[in-house]
Task: structure prediction
Amino acid sequence: MKPALKFIFAALVVGGFATVPSWGSAVLVQFGINALILATLAQSWNIIGGYTGYPSFGNSVFYGLGGYGVAIALVQYQLPSAVGLILGVVLAVLFAFLLGLPVLRLRGHYFAIATLGLTEVMTAIVSNLDIAGRNVGLILPLAKGDTLFLELSLALLVVTTLAVAWISRSRFGFGLIAIRENEVAAAVMGVNTTLYKILAFALCAVFSALAGGIHAYWITYLDPGSAFDVSLNVRMIIMAVFGGPGTIFGPALGAFALAAISEILASKITSLASIFFGVVIVVAIIFMPRGVADLAQNFRRFGWRYFQENIKAHRV
Amino acid sequence: MDNILEVRNLTKRFHGLLAIDRVTFALERNQILGLIGPNGAGKTTLVSLVSGTLQPTEGSVLFEGKPIHRLAGFRRALLGIARTFQVMRPFPGLTVLDNVAVGALFGAAGSTRQLAAAREDANRWLHFVGLDHRVRQRADALGGPDRKRLELAKALAMRPKLLLLDEVMAGLNPVEIEEVITVIKKVRDQGISIVVIEHVMKAIQSLSDRLLVLHHGEKIAEGKPQEVLRNDQVIAAYLGSKRR
Ligand SMILES: Nc1ncnc2c1ncn2[C@@H]1O[C@H](COP(=O)(O)OP(=O)(O)O)[C@@H](O)[C@H]1O
Ligand SMILES: [Mg+2]
Result:
């Protein structure tokens, strides 16, 4: 597809989402909110994982801090929710700067494991903080209807995607891509690699924290286990990789597709749903390892041979 | 005398191994210095110390009179130092054009910050090194000789004042070597100072204003090419070991 066509298509999808509350059931609206939040998370992960090439398992920390920002502001200080969202973003960005500095010196598996450790550490810390309700968690005041949350999460996904679109054609984004492709060469060519990696980490902290804040406000409940959930981080990665990491629309597309598949499976064949979900992912990774975005771009050119070529190119 | 680069008592130790041992030399502006020596002599290490890919154990590097050996690699790039890699380091997933555009976007201060302008610039450099027929291909689809040309175009797009070329002719055929020699001479005529590492004697002789010979990390000779290549120690260390 031509870029302009893609944006028109994206605008139609956004318009479609916005009308759901006027005709869809409550369940559909709730599914929509969840899918939009997951898409935002996959899209934020795309910045550090897809564009910069650093497979972060620490994004659920940003998400959790965003949630706690809202929860603490509302419950402990009776502040407006907007202040809580800002508090969550500030916490997450601080965290990205403080821990990004040591952790972003590591590469590949080491980086993944170190960020995984961050999630565990955060769970332990927050479980012992009175202000965060320790391991019991916090119950937030009930908020207005689902329509508001659908609009909020839709707006957030649009902003996040616009940020990614800007990254993909800016000097900053080219610096990130150069880091992903070869970090030593990037530095020699004049990319301030340390700064760029931290900025990318902080940028994904902003969007993940906003997603976490909106979600906590919507669900009206938060505890350390659900706030800093590693399996949520795994889902972000699967969705982004399924859709096409390092592309503008892939991660959001991947999130919608996988959210829909798992929703359908869960309603039809409850107990086997997670197994089927796993099978879908394995099959996708084998036949289209570069994601849905790449499939959409190349399937017309190669036809069914596209799958054959992928299997050939990626087997050991 | 106007030295763009001065290296003083430079030493690099890898654990036990002395890869560079108290090397001192200077490069005059707008000159070409040929750096030769047998494999493992420390040539690549010396380039890495100047470009900031490695930090020295001791000694200093001065660029336009200012010490730079404590600066991060990217800062040296901004000052106007560019290098190519002997073991080539393209951005494999990017197109050839965008590989070079990164050089135009970053590189020495004063380069363009707009992607469209950077791509235009990249196109010009790819034409300059004779790669214009490959611009739309992914870098990992290039063969060896074209990858060498790409390394060169990426470095040139940075608009450096000092260019460090680490074996850009290795693996090229005689015709291709002639082409690269022409390109390097044209680059020098634009006012860029150059350090070339090369094993092809004919190429290094025709290019270099001066030669520096490394052996086991030490400088064993320096001077005019004809004189250096007649030096007995050089013949024994370098040419001798090559012929055997
Ligand atoms: N990163 C490194 N770690 C340890 N030893 C190294 C490293 N890089 C180079 N060396 C060693 O330093 C010596 C000089 O290597 P190098 O500079 O690559 O030589 P040349 O480019 O002249 O062939 C060699 O003995 C090499 O094995
Ligand atoms: Mg070498």
